[in-house]
Design brief:
alpha+beta; single chain; 4 helices; elongated; 3 strands; 141 residues; three-stranded antiparallel beta sheet
Length: 141
């Protein structure tokens, strides 16, 4: 098996572009997405799948038999900022809600407990809220 090309993502103004970079160094445009949409993890994943689908279709149209191999060079925190949250593997019905929230929200939109778990997690229990009016309160695990 020989490597044909890499799919690389580059910033181009107000968008990200997916390029097919061949072993000889030449690049071919595949598709692009706006930066605000690229920040959404679900849209970013669909963008990666679309770019991959384009290059696979081009290679197969040329008569090649294609086997995909993913080289994960992106930081895991960039791809899934809350990858360590145990809700991804939990079977609780509450965990499904948390997973949907994690998939659809930007990292800044997720409210975490002091233990680092999402506030909606079934393992987070608010024991009490004490403090002066207007001060933020904290939940404990």
């Amino acid at each position: 098996m020989s490597k044909v090309a890499n799919i690389v993502i580059v910033e181009a103004g107000a968008r990200r572009e997916a390029l097919c970079r061949s072993e000889d160094g030449s690049s071919t445009f595949l598709c692009s997405i706006g930066l605000s949409d690229y920040d959404n993890p679900l849209l970013r994943e669909q963008f990666f799948q679309f770019a991959t689908g384009i290059i696979v279709a081009r290679l197969r149209a040329g008569g090649s038999i294609v086997t995909l191999a993913q080289c994960d060079t992106a930081r895991s925190t960039e791809a899934k900022p809350h990858a360590a949250v145990p809700c991804w593997a939990c079977s609780s019905p509450i965990a499904e809600d948390v997973r949907n929230q994690l998939r659809s929200s930007a990292a800044a939109d997720i409210h975490l407990s002091p233990s680092g778990l999402p506030m909606a997690c079934c393992k987070v229990h608010a024991l009490g809220a004490f403090g002066l009016a207007g001060e933020p309160t904290r939940a404990r695990r």
